[in-house]
């Protein structure tokens, strides 16, 4: 049966190889189970978005399992899908604030509606055959600049969540109104005795070292090492070093304030295992009507672009590595793209941000995965993870444990900087503005807008206006109009 479904012999693989490849892929991307609920619930940032942590965890696992299964059976590729890193931050830090500024009572529901509409729009684009036009609208330098900017943003947030980078409140004496001292918007923390720094440092060093050694699950093991140290400090300090536990450095840390242990009366296994959480708080909660308002359309378009680039980049990268490419083309690319977009709609309905193909699938391909059976293995493991909600909640509510994963993922994304054409300023400057604009504006949308506006303008004024398509001029003009007519009134 498996031979008939996945053509194992034709692809020169075996059931055992496919199962091991699936486990490998899962280990490289399992961090999303910890990070996604923390991002969408707001616990990663210290505020509440209105989305239930446990429900988002369930939605993440179910969306990943369902979308990966669609890719496995329909696309027949060893490519796993899950809520995308980058899209989830855009969801919380850009779309939700914009929806709140427009006066919508439940911004997270509007954001889910935006994701759903973007998925429907991509279907329309797919059916009209203009997917390639959207992809070709941006140059390779701009595409890679977006990836770099999001990577820097994610890493910056990781350093903040670790407590290593903090906001500064240095006021220039005698200024009226009060002004911040130059260069003090953010700074390196002075509290190096904080246990939060130790937890982050251990997680980061373990993750990086294991990645250098070729470990498939380096991010997961880094999270595990950070969690083990956090548990040891949280349990051991009050008992073995009460004076140190009561010190200002420890009591002011996130370890003391946010890392709450389960009820000690519970059996130890219940600290980590439970029945799957309810999906009810986020299931089918999209506010589509509000998402279709004029103020939300720029975000819908940006989601379409982000998901397009993620998907095509992943398909090309994995396809090249696995040897799937034929005459510089990927067989069944339409089926794979359609499977990916099905994941976006599935995720929005279940209650999570854009679900997309994961470049970490390359780890499974490297382990020998060649068919959809690899994806089915990943899908089954995501379903099994539903029974470990207490562990996910314990990790997600203490940001220094997952902060190393954000820094490492950011570093992986920043390597695209070498693909920018730095010798051509008409390409380099818009890409650079995008890269630096995303983290410094603390908004993916605003950073992208800087690039989308500057790119056609520089090309036009430098006498090279024909090098960019009409779509970029339309998008740039629309963003200018949005900032002047809509954004300035928010």
This entry's quaternary arrangement is: single chain
How many β-strands, per DSSP? 4
N-to-C span: 58 Å
Structural class: mainly alpha
Largest sheet strand order = 1-4
The gyration radius over C-alpha positions equals 23 Å
Total domains: 2
> Biggest sheet: strands, sense, closure?
2 strands, antiparallel
- Count of separate DSSP helical elements: 23
| Helix share bin | 55-70%
Beta-strand content bin? under 5%
Which blocks of ≥5 consecutive residues have pLDDT under 50?
none
The helix-strand sequence is HHHHEHHHHEEHHHHHHHHEHHHHHHH
Structure explained in plain terms:
By secondary structure, this protein is an all-alpha fold. The chain folds into 2 domains: 2-417, no CATH class; 418-489, no CATH class. 64% of the residues lie in helices and 2% in strands. The chain has helices at residues 2-6, 15-29, 31-41, 53-75, 87-101, 107-128, 131-136, 140-161, 195-212, 218-240, 242-245, 248-251, 254-257, 288-291, 297-322, 333-350, 361-366, 372-384, 389-396, 399-414, 425-441, 444-461, 470-486, and strands at residues 81-83, 165-167, 186-188, 355-357. The strands form 2 sheets. The chain has a two-stranded antiparallel sheet with strand order 1-4. α5 (87-101) packs across α6 (107-128), α6 (107-128) runs antiparallel to α16 (333-350) and α10 (218-240) packs antiparallel against α20 (399-414).
């Amino acid at each position: 049966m498996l031979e008939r479904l996945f053509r194992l012999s034709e692809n020169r693989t075996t059931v055992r190889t496919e199962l091991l490849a699936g486990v490998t892929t899962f280990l490289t991307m399992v961090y999303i189970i910890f990070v996604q609920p923390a991002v969408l619930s707001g616990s990663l940032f210290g505020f509440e978005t209105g989305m239930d942590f446990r429900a988002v965890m369930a939605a993440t696992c179910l969306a990943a399992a369902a979308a990966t299964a669609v890719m496995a059976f329909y696309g027949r590729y060893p490519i796993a899908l899950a809520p995308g890193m980058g899209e989830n931050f855009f969801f919380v830090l850009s779309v939700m604030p914009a929806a709140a500024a427009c006066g919508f009572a439940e911004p997270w529901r509007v954001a889910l509606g935006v994701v759903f509409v973007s998925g429907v729009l991509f279907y329309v684009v797919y059916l009209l055959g203009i997917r390639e036009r959207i992809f070709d609208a941006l140059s390779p330098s701009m595409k890679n600049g977006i990836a770099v900017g999001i990577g820097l943003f994610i890493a910056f947030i990781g350093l903040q969540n670790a407590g290593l980078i903090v906001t500064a409140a240095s006021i220039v004496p005698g200024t009226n109104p009060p002004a911040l001292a130059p260069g003090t918007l953010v700074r390196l923390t002075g509290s190096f005795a904080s246990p939060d720094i130790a937890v982050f440092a251990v997680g980061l060093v373990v993750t990086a070292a294991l990645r250098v050694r070729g470990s498939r699950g380096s991010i997961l093991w880094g999270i595990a090492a950070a969690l083990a140290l956090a548990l040891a400090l949280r349990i051991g300090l009050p008992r073995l070093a009460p004076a140190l536990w009561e010190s200002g450095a420890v009591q002011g840390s996130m370890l003391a304030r946010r890392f709450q242990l389960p009820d000690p009366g519970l059996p130890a296994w219940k600290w980590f295992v439970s029945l799957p959480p309810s999906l009810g708080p986020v299931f089918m909660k999209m506010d589509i009507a509000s998402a279709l308002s004029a103020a939300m359309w720029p975000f819908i378009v940006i989601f379409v672009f982000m998901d397009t680039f993620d998907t095509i980049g992943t398909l090309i990268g994995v396809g090249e590595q696995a040897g799937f490419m034929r005459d510089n083309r990927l067989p069944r690319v339409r089926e794979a793209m359609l499977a990916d977009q099905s994941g976006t709609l599935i995720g929005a309905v279940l209650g999570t941000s854009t679900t997309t193909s994961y470049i970490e699938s390359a780890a499974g391909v490297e382990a020998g995965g060649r068919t959809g059976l690899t994806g089915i293995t990943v899908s089954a493991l995501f379903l099994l993870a539903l029974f470990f909600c207490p562990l996910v909640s314990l990790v997600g509510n203490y940001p220094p444990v997952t902060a190393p994963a954000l820094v490492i993922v950011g570093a992986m994304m920043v390597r695209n900087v070498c693909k920018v054409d730095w010798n051509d300023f008409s390409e380099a400057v818009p890409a650079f503005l995008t890269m630096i604009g995303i983290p410094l504006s603390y908004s993916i949308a605003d950073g992208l807008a800087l690039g989308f506006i500057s790119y056609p303008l520089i090309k036009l004024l430098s006498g090279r206006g024909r090098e960019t398509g009409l779509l970029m001029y339309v998008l740039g003009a629309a963003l200018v109009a949005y900032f002047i007519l809509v954004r300035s009134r928010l």
